[in-house]
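Input/output pair, single chain:
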Amino acid sequence: MKRACCLYIVPVKNYFNETERELLSQKGICYSFAAQQGWSIAKEFTGIDKIGKYALYDIKTNIREAANNNEFDVLLLSSYKLVEKCDITPFLIEWLINKGIEVWCVVEGKQSIGDQVNNLINFIRCWQTDMPGEVKL
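Output:
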């Protein structure tokens, strides 16, 4: 059975209930998807959106450390937009995949690398987060 590490990103809000609802929504989506895939949830990280841009250096460091310690087989997010906005770069995605760790987004599916087209798409997705209102892939 594959072990999933779920990454949740929640906004900083004045009202706890809104942040809590967002977290529970992402958790529900990830838990349901993991169950459908036959995966167990081995680890969870929650990052907080700070000033409209996800400042998650510690989360990225923790993900790398957990990966190096072989604590999970799959990094799972509810949507690729979280990968884009939480500053998880295509380099980290590539690093995880090269370590044999799959990167999955419930909405968009399994992320891949290996050819110029996939690499370019990953870079464009991350670049687009700084361009609100623009056409998304």
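The domain at 3-128 is CATH 3.40.50.1390 (Rossmann fold). The two ends are 32 Å apart (CA to CA).
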